[in-house]
Amino acid sequence: MTHPKPRQLLQTGDWAFVVVVVASYVSFFTAADVTFTGFEILALAVVGLLYTAIGTYGFENYVVSASLGTKILYYALQFPLVMGIWVLSHFSGAFWLLLLPLVSHGSVLFNGAGVWVIGALTALIFGVSQGILGGWQMGLTATLSFAPGVVFVVIFTQMTMSESRAREQVERLAQDLAAAHQTLAQYAVQAEELATAKERNRLAREIHDSLGHYLTAINVQLEVARTLSESDPSQVLQPLERAQALTKEGLHEVRRSVAALRASPLEGKSLMTVLAALVEDLQTSGIATSFEVQGELHSLPPQLELALYRVMQEALTNVRKHAQARHAEVSLAYTTEDVRLRVRDDGVGSDAPTGGFGLVGLRERVQLLGGDLHCASEPDAGFTLEARIPFQA
């Protein structure tokens, strides 16, 4: 079992502990009518440093997660050190400040009644110290005066701990959600690849079966033509025409299957080439179209390139079919973190810019890659579609 690396001094709540100790010592040395010898100053410094070291470094590394005995030992050391500082300070100044961090630590170390036991013990120690100097009435008054401070410190510490635990839980949930989202995206990609592989295999079997059927039928017709060429040459033309018709049907079937079997419209081509071809197709339909590339080009994963191609293909198809536009603008922007594709036209627009099934499918495709897709439009104000996909996709 590995042990966590000891935490360094002066982190997080340690600063508050140190500030309280410094404030208390300032009150000692600025108290009126109190003079310290060199030995007393040295002793105060040593005891104060020991008290601070145990309450910060020692508390975080050796007490917080320790057994009940160690926690009790912690207070068995700290309370006498506080009283020793009080004695060395000539019973002057705000030594009670040194007791407040111990109250706060009680909220961290104990639950339920244990918290209030430490708080009551701290208030009692302060009251007894004051009673020694001024009698039991002064001690009782000091205890009752100190008690509200103890309650405040306990409640404040518990609220802070609750907030910290809630924040840690939210961070864990966010990390779990991000991991689940990433896993889901990976599963989606794998499912798509598996479906593609199954479809390719199906088409391959179709090509094999259909091509074999046509070749067999053509071979039969050619055999018939060969036989007739010897016995009845006047009848040779009919099986030859039939073989030619079968050949045309077979070629059509092969072309259809091969077209469906293509892995990607980008296969063997660059992204810029296929996007420029889409723009050129729209221009030939009579719509003036501009294409602008911004930023430094990056090498993109195949899934991201295919998503950009499909987004632009669907957007330009919608411009051609529905926009009644005269002009269209296409821009592809590379930033330091993502790539953004925007298609905008000056057509009739729409009062329902969310789009139909085509845009819904594109949005799902983009979201699976960790990006987002937005549409903006108003009647007679054109239509704008923008997709943003991070490079990490």
Quick overview of this protein structure:
This protein has three domains: 14-175; 184-261, Single alpha-helices involved in coiled-coils or other helix-helix interfaces; 271-390, 2-Layer Sandwich (Heat Shock Protein 90), CATH 3.30.565.
Describe this protein's structure.
By secondary structure, this protein is of the alpha+beta class. 67% of the residues lie in helices and 9% in strands. It has a five-stranded mixed sheet with strand order 1-2-3-5-4. The longest helix is centred in the middle third of the chain and has 96 residues, at 136-231. The chain is elongated, with a radius of gyration of 41 Å. Mean pLDDT is 83; it is low at 1-10.
- Judged by helices, strands and strand pairing, the structural class is alpha+beta
Query: What is the ordering of alpha helices and beta strands?
Result: HHHHHHHHEHEEHEE
Cα(first) to Cα(last) distance is 37 Å
Number of domains: 3
- Measured as a percent range, the helix fraction is 55-70%
Number of strands: 5
List the strand order in the largest sheet: 1-2-3-5-4
Radius of gyration: 41 Å
Q: Report low-confidence residues grouped into runs of 5 or more.
A: 1-10
Shape: elongated
Largest sheet properties: 5 strands, mixed
Question: Taking all residues together, what is the mean pLDDT?
Answer: 83
β content, as a range?
A: 5-15%
Number of helices: 10
